[in-house]
Amino acid sequence: MNNVTNRDKQLDALDEHLAAHVAELFSIFSDTSRVRLIAVLAQGEQNVGTLAQAINLSESAVSHHLRVLRQTRMVQGRRDGRQVFYKLDPHVAELLHQGLDHLQNG
Hints:
Blueprint: H1 6-12, H2 16-27, H3 32-41, E1 46-47, H4 48-55, H5 59-71, E2 75-80, E3 83-88, H6 90-105
Helix pairs in contact: 4-5
């Protein structure tokens, strides 16, 4: 019986190109402001002003971080009139929760 899972197959396919993308993904978590933004967005969709207030950063700085998160497809923006609301990809929220679990429990 073959016990190879889809996750095992993903690891087998981890060439240099894909490894670089994974490294880029995890590098996003190397900035505390982005981690805090991700944590706020894990609780639900927010606009720039609300995010800036929640993590005590300027709207300009939050916009810069959101640009990085959008480029890596970690967040999506939705325009409502003049405002843009940002939503976190559920996979990213799971990464955050797993990281927190690892630090707190194990």
